[in-house]
Design brief:
Chain B: InterPro entries: SWIB_domain, SWIB_MDM2_dom_sf, SWIB_MDM2_domain. The complex is a heterodimer of chains A (about 600) and B (about 100). Chain A is mostly helical. Chain A contains 33 helices and no strands. Classes of the chains: A mainly alpha (about 600), B mainly alpha (about 100).
């Protein structure tokens, strides 16, 4: 975790989940209690809940990615290619977000900030279809956290609280949400007003989804709607939804500002708060006008002149909104030109990460340098980890080594996430022997390796043919409290197969299963290929049957080797069967499968003749 | 990794080979009767013939590598009584026009 403070701050969120295992009522109490505790923290929640009403699942997931015991969720399933992937926790978590759905997330919100945690109950109760979306997104992630696996999905926790209905429930819990949710108070009134209009019955309570008041981006239409609302009820209070809805239909920033003015004219009770201006700010950032940051500057100026000078949350919202509109350059410009806007480390690292992902390395460096001279913000360890990660991804190991020197020079102690990245790069570049050097260096510097380090190490050593050495690390791992997982074993097995010791690999498979580690298709693929290479086709066929029973896919190299071995053993019929299986299981495209088969048959004919 | 790179390279270098496999071609009348369509790729044709063999259980029970042709199959596979599965791709290739190399 990036800092102990953050780590500690996330603990309550785990507590919520634990509570959510209980009965519905209990879990609701948990959520509401949490909300109540934070109700007075700041007023941001409301506006943000409005903005994010459409993405409760994304928000929920982002929270999941925070709790340390759920961190595995975000990790891609271990595969031969991916098993060594791990970034710094922040980068990993962002990756998980982006992998999900950046578009839907579109979040101008600083998700990792503890302050926003209380949003989650709000957002969840805000959207009627959140249980489905949330749970489906959870399954999108591939795995469920062990906690949820044991219990059914905590749907009860995700359900909107019953307080949104007109009959007040007996339990005191839902009442606590009232101060947070003026929208709940609004319900009966809203219903009355619609009845007066004679629109008919509205089956769903309006506040359970972000209400859409407007259907055209024209200012005159919007003003007409506002007027009609003010004519019906003078106690209307959900101005943020109103404003957000107007922004969502595609109004220009100037028009939304005019609407804000109009609102404050029509409703004397309405006093714009910080979150009101944040809506405008985010809206101006989401405009697709690349290169033109004057509307953003205008809205920032408006904030200062209205008595809400932009703080770090405003900066964060702006930067994230800009990035979600692919305006990373503008975000950098915004920070560089306004030294008064001090991004906090989260915003800064987020922006650096985005720049590193989408722009050239020199852009990133010049941004960091310029920001250092302008506002004296220095890159921290996480910044360096992000940059080194992206450098390693582009196979630029020399730069990574140079950065490591710079890092030490500036007095930052590298951690194991950083070294994991560099180690991964060595493996990618087929310089796997170097991982041992790196490991010794880590030891010298007193950095405690973690499971990812060991897995990368075993993978690298196996790849370089030093399987014996890799095996020794199983004991080292066990001594330091890490148990070899499926990635470790798969690396070892493929290393042994590469050496030609497939029967040893088969033994290792047995050992692995004994220890309760269930092999996956990558393990089987590596093993099948190894068995085919050494010519023990009987065992290979046995393994193949296991794979077909489990519906596992064949990888291309494994398939080609297997087919060739079958043809050589004059089992053409079986080879055709494998061809069919590869097509059925969609492991390979038809043409790839056919070409491999045709090649093997041709070669076999050549042997016969 | 290296293997995959090599495979990619090979695929990039032999676009003609892949094209002759997956491009639709006009087929001779004998094959048209068998397939019921006048245009098919070599890959599609191979898959159709192979699935026909499986459907009709034409593989020899004692030797799975050999196919006992029925009359329909005979008409397209050079009139052979027995066809080894090894030569099946080659026999099907004969039905398609030769692409100049």
């Amino acid at each position: 975790m990036p800092s102990d403070g953050l780590h500690a701050a996330w603990d309550p969120s785990q507590a919520i989940f634990r509570e959510s295992e209980g009965t519905g009522r209990e879990s609701q109490m948990g959520v509401e209690g949490e909300s109540r505790r934070r109700a007075d923290e700041n007023e941001l929640g409301r506006g943000l809940a409005n903005q994010l009403g459409s993405s409760p699942a994304a928000l929920l997931l982002s929270r999941l990615s925070h709790s340390s015991y759920l961190k595995n969720l975000c990790r891609p399933p271990p595969t031969n290619k991916q098993l060594i992937i791990d970034g710094p926790p922040l980068a990993a978590q962002r990756r998980s977000c982006s992998a999900l759905d950046w578009g839907r997330l579109c979040s101008p919100v600083r998700l990792e900030h503890p302050r926003f945690r209380r949003l989650i109950p709000c957002v969840i109760s805000f959207s009627p279809n959140s249980p489905q979306t949330a749970s489906s997104s959870l399954t999108v992630m591939g795995k469920l956290p062990p906690l949820m696996r044991s219990a059914p999905l905590p749907i009860c926790f995700l359900k909107p609280p019953p307080s949104s209905s007109p009959h007040p429930p007996s339990s005191p819990a839902p009442e606590t949400s009232k101060p947070q949710f003026p929208s709940h108070k609004r319900h009966p009134k809203h219903k009355n007003s619609t009845k007066k209009f004679g629109v008919g019955k509205i089956s769903t309570p309006p506040a359970t989804s972000p209400p859409s008041f407007f259907f055209s981006p024209a200012l005159s239409d919007a003003i007409a709607v506002v007027d009609s609302i003010s004519g019906v009820s003078s106690h209307f209070s959900d101005f943020h939804s109103l404003l957000q809805s107007f922004c969502n239909v595609g109004a220009s920033p100037a028009d939304s500002l005019s609407l804000l003015h109009h609102l404050s004219l029509r409703f004397p009770s309405f006093s714009p708060s910080r979150s009101t201006y944040h809506i405008l700010l985010v809206h101006s950032c989401l405009q697709p006008s690349i290169g033109d940051i004057s509307p953003i500057l205008n809205s920032l100026e408006l904030m200062s002149s209205s008595g809400f000078p932009p703080d770090s949350s405003s900066v964060d919202l702006a930067v994230r909104a800009l990035c979600s509109a692919s305006r990373e350059d503008d975000a950098a410009q915004l920070l560089l030109r306004n030294p008064s806007l001090r991004p906090d480390p989260f915003t800064y690292n987020f922006l650096v990460g985005r720049l590193a992902k989408t722009r050239s390395l020199s852009t990133v460096y010049s941004f960091i340098d310029e920001l250092r001279t302008a506002t004296n913000i220095l890159p921290d360890r996480i910044t360096y980890t992000i940059i080194i990660d992206s450098v390693c991804r582009s196979h630029n190991l020399r730069e990574a080594t140079r950065l490591l020197g710079v890092l030490k020079h500036s007095g930052i102690k590298p951690d194991c996430y950083l070294y994991n990245n560099i180690m991964k790069a060595y493996c990618l570049l087929d310089q796997s022997g170097e991982v041992m050097v790196l490991y010794n260096k880590m030891k010298e510097e007193g950095i405690e390796p973690d499971l990812v380090t060991y897995n990368t190490l075993v993978h690298g050593l196996s790849k370089a043919g030093m399987v014996d050495q890799a095996k020794k690390f199983l004991n080292v791992m066990a001594n330091s409290g890490y148990f070899p997982d499926i990635a470790t074993y798969t690396s070892l097995i493929s290393g042994m197969c590469r050496k030609g010791d497939s029967l040893g690999a088969l033994r290792l498979l047995g050992e692995m299963e004994e220890k309760g580690c269930i092999p996956n298709e990558f393990t089987y693929n590596a093993l099948l290929m190894g068995l085919c290479k050494v010519g023990s086709l009987d065992k290979g066929l046995e393994l193949y049957r296991l794979m077909t029973d489990g519906g596992m896919k064949l990888e291309n190299p494994t398939y080609a080797t297997f087919i060739r071995t079958l043809c050589r053993a004059n089992k053409i019929g079986k080879a055709y069967e494998v061809f069919d299986y590869a097509r059925e299981s969609k492991s390979l495209s038809d043409d790839a499968a056919y070409l491999a088969l045709e090649n093997s048959l041709k070669r076999f004919k050549g042997l016969q003749a | 990794m290296a293997l995959r790179m090599a495979a990619k390279k090979a695929a990039a270098e032999s676009p003609k080979r892949l094209a002759s496999l997956i491009d639709l071609a006009n087929v001779p009348s004998t094959l048209r009767d068998f397939l019921g369509q006048s245009q098919i790729s070599r890959l599609g044709c191979f898959i159709r013939v192979w699935s026909y063999i499986k459907e009709q259980n034409l593989q020899d029970a004692s030797n799975m590598n050999v196919v006992n042709c029925d009359n329909k199959l005979k008409s397209i596979l050079l009139g052979k009584d027995q066809v080894n599965l090894t030569e099946l791709p080659m026999l099907i290739k004969l039905l398609f026009p030769n692409h100049p190399k």
